[in-house]
# Entry
Amino acid sequence: MRYPVRRRRFNFRGLSVIKLAALFVLLTQCALAQEKSCVEQLKDLRLESLEGKVTTHYSPGQRKRASEMKVLLEEASSFYERSLGLTPVVTLAALAPAEWPFLLDKPYGLPTLRTGPCRRGGIWNAPKQYLAIMPVTLSGPLYDDWIALKGSLSPETMKKLKKSGITFEQGGQVLVDFVALHELGHAYHHAMGIDNVSSFFAEFMGNYFAYAFLRSTKERLDKRTMLVLNANLEGITPIHASLDKFEKFQSREHPPTEAWYNSAFTVKVAEVYEKKGFAFLREVRDAFAGEKYLSINNEEILRRLEKIQPGFVEWAQQLPRLPEKKKMQSADPKKSS
# Structure
């Protein structure tokens, strides 16, 4: 006997909703899953490395230059440890063009510091892992843009560079070394409890650490570095000169403008450091305790900095006039002497 088949109706529409909900949850979990740190991604490249206070991973054939950068950063790290008691673990990636794209999607030669994933905006909830990523070859925007300045610098500036004991071309390496110290400086101001409250503020702090070390050296490496940075101010025409515009600026838009801003910031850094030394950083840490990126605007940042060391507000107001002022000084050497 054949019994009649009872056909059960499945709620396909409901089932599809359940599937969609499950898929949504799965995708959300994937999106929230913590990515690898940039340090771990660097290790995945299996490059040769030099162990030490600043462990350095380097591209094939670049051991000599990587070792030079490592020594420089380790000397600076030891100085910060003695002066401030800070001991963050910092790793250096000294990369050639072939390896650069495996970590960064920005043009070769534009350095950076990563504290979590290599990808900007990646999920990272663990303690910061500091990785300074630097070009190991003297090529890319940082060095090439310096070389391009040669015909635009005044004879007086060229004489000053020569008198300092470096050729114009060596000035490019001085600049690259300064930027390496700047990236290291970011790790140390984070370790000190000073966050990236704004782009200008972060760059100023990185430069402050870099200058402090150079100023401390027996050779007074700060002198030739400041010659190079002032040459940047003389020879580069930035696309704008405003702290608020700098907040929206990306270095890949016009690398020379990035170099110009950091040169201008460091001239101000030198002025402040000569008056306040590391006391400035301690006061900054206290004045900006608890502040995070964009929690306050540059107007408020300048107001607080002004209370620590008068002159910041006027300096920011004069910044847009600096490009024209530098051009006038280079045309009249007596004004820049």
Observations:
- Residues 35-137 form one domain.
- The first strand starts at residue 48 and ends at 50.
- DSSP finds 15 helices and five strands in the chain.
